[in-house]
Design a protein that fits this description.
The structure is a homodimer. Chain A is of the alpha/beta class. Chain A has helices at about 10-15, 20-30, 35-50, 55-60, 80-95, 105-120, 135-140, 165-180, 195-210, 225-240, 250-265, 300-315; strands at about 65-70, 95-100, 125, 145-150, 160-165, 185-190, 220, 245-250, 275-280, 290-295, 325, 330. The first copy, chain A, has a six-stranded parallel β-sheet with strand order 2-1-3-4-5-11, with helices on both faces. The longest helix of chain A has 16 residues, at about 80-95. Chain A is elongated and about 90 Å long. Chain A starts with 9 loop residues before the first helix and ends in an 11-residue tail after the last strand. Chain A binds a DNA duplex through helix 2 and helix 4.
Chain lengths: ~350, ~350
DNA sequence: CGTAATTATCGAACCGGTTCGATAAATGGT
DNA sequence: ACCATTTATCGAACCGGTTCGATAATTACG
């Protein structure tokens, strides 16, 4: 019901409180520099007029603002939405607004958005990188923006990073499958130009080797984090006469592709083929069969990224070295994995 | 690789092109008002210096900018992410940036965000309304922001609206079920304080009546667009001795709750109970059983909302009356519905 | 060719704050 | 009570554009 008083300005408040415009400014931006009496007078006048400092003017003068950017690679995957939602909430709660963009996996668009952010005086952003080339990383480094990378770490960019412990995820899945008696374990990999893709692949290799096994080349398919590609890759693996008894996939989309492939080949899951994946699927409890997976604590991860970002912004960590955290995934056993001997 | 020239200003360009600062401004904002010669000289100088007008300064002076807002009720539902992604893309393609917020169904937060938007000179926003009370609508009307409502229409707010043809959706579902021989059709409704909730309920009633049937009170449950509430509501309906043979649910979350209820009661779907819903479920083809549903053309809807919004912003439609569009849903038949006599 | 009507360019004021150096007021020490 | 500090307030300049009224340069035309 409050009538939006059309734009009270600092000068108005100054007049009505009998002080200089600059004092009004101080009363808001550095209250301790103004005597208790006048501060109260100013604040009262401001409240009466519904005055609040104009953030655009502030930003012009100071080159700062209360906006953080988020650059996502993808919003079609529910993961992106979840990250955005949590990061947004965290940021909003501390008084920051969020400007979002989605690059649709196009590194060039990432860089365009970075440029826009700079123009808007946005000084910090969470980025799910779409690229990893030298010039891409170079452009990000050259930018005046402080980044927190999410999901895919960029080697060569000195910034905070929040991600998943991919190696641990693979270890959980491998151990689970090995315990069920599987020996021929295949993999539909993600995008190997991205940190998470190679980490997951390397982690898988390592975990298999710890179990006295190895990832055979013929059991390795390339899904590119794309459902269609994953479908084809899985199809190829599952058509072999000595097909793997279990498939580990690199993320949710990849798993969906693999499941579709199994179904189309009339392979029953888990009786004929076990499938386990990193990453989760929304409403996974209704998917049939429910997926065994290494779940990411998305909420915690996104909140961490937002918090770190704003810490940097507010300068508490000017000199501190880049931080790096990998959250531990959690093994959720579903119906998609079973003992190798038909259980 | 372009070295980010630290901030060339209009004054710099003016000097290097031998003109006044105001002429530089004109060269960018109203090129036709500057002679071809000087315009070229200015543009060259600008290009050489990597100059681009500072949007913050522009916004301070003009009270305008190239930012649109999006206020979502929810980002945990994949629907929100899809809408955001599409709207974002549309906006970005026309040179607009997007500021997002998520109110988590709290009308008060909606209004806070509106206030922030105003301060930031954002003049237009897409809103998935979280509330519908008089004061809520009043506050939106009083705001200087042009809205496009998405999903839930607000009666009393004169603005463009983009939504789904909910009545048609219900008609599709009812006809499908009636054709399968169902006569006892139950409903788990959504949030009846929201337009879409009542539209869907009314649409259902109407469609049933067209088929010579009626919605009996005992077959009506209230799901509030919440999974838990829907679960409980469905449980109650399905426990009746003369339980409905088919259930229509108000949206995806509601359907999930209903399916869980059926499963927990050891009712087989579709043999014992058919379930159909408005709204879709991501990766629905893997859910078991696949859901019969009235699918929303989310991409088209979101693109339309973004386009309309920006049209308003750019003033082509100053005087035109509010527009209203309801996109037709499409019936997707899955495995969750079957003939009433055990098929 | 001279004057009227256009068109191009300029300078100054302004948007609404912040910040700095200077002045005024309050406080402290002896 | 007197001077040295410290603290509070002020005025002016500035951030980087836009916009308006005024002047200068063109063009039109009788």
């Amino acid at each position: 019901m409050a009538i939006i008083s059309s734009r009270a300005t600092a000068a108005d408040i100054a007049k009505s409180a009998g002080v200089a415009k600059s004092t009004v400014s101080l009363a808001f931006s550095a209250p301790e520099r103004v005597s208790a009496k006048t501060r109260e007078r100013i604040l009262n006048a401001a409240a009466a007029a519904g005055y609040t400092p104009n953030p655009v003017a502030q930003s012009l003068k100071t080159g700062r603002n209360n906006i953080v950017g988020i650059i996502l690679a993808d919003l079609t995957n529910p993961h992106g939405g979840a990250v955005l939602g949590q990061a947004q909430q965290t940021a909003n709660d501390i008084g920051y607004m969020v400007m979002t963009t989605t690059a649709s996996h196009d590194p060039k668009r990432d860089l365009e958005f970075v440029r826009k952010f700079e123009q808007l005086n946005i000084r910090a952003a969470i980025i799910m990188p779409s690229g990893s080339s030298d010039e891409y990383v170079g452009a990000l480094s050259a930018s005046s923006i402080r980044f927190v990378t999410y999901g895919h770490k960029l080697s060569g960019l000195a910034c905070d990073h929040v991600g998943l412990d991919n190696r641990m995820g693979m270890e959980l899945l491998v151990r689970h499958l090995v315990d069920l008696g599987h020996r021929r374990i295949g993999h539909v990999a993600g995008n190997l130009r991205q940190w998470s893709g190679t980490e997951r692949l390397d982690g898988l290799r390592e975990s298999l080797s710890d179990a006295g096994l190895a990832l055979e080349d013929k059991y390795l398919g390339f899904g590119e984090y794309d459902e269609e590609a994953s479908y084809r890759a899985a199809l190829k693996l599952l058509r072999k006469k000595d097909r793997p008894t279990a498939l580990i996939t690199a993320n949710n989309v990849t798993a969906i592709g693999a499941l579709r492939a199994a179904r189309d080949l009339k392979l029953r899951c888990p009786e004929d083929i076990s499938v386990a994946t990193i990453d989760e699927v929304p409403w996974s409890e209704l998917i049939s069969p429910t997926l065994t997976h290494a779940a990411q604590p998305i909420g915690d991860m996104a909140a961490c990224a937002a918090t770190w970002l704003i810490e940097r912004l507010e300068g508490q960590n000017k000199t501190e070295l880049p931080r790096f955290i990998e959250f531990p995934p959690k093994l959720i056993v579903g119906q998609s994995t079973a003992s190798v001997d038909g259980h």
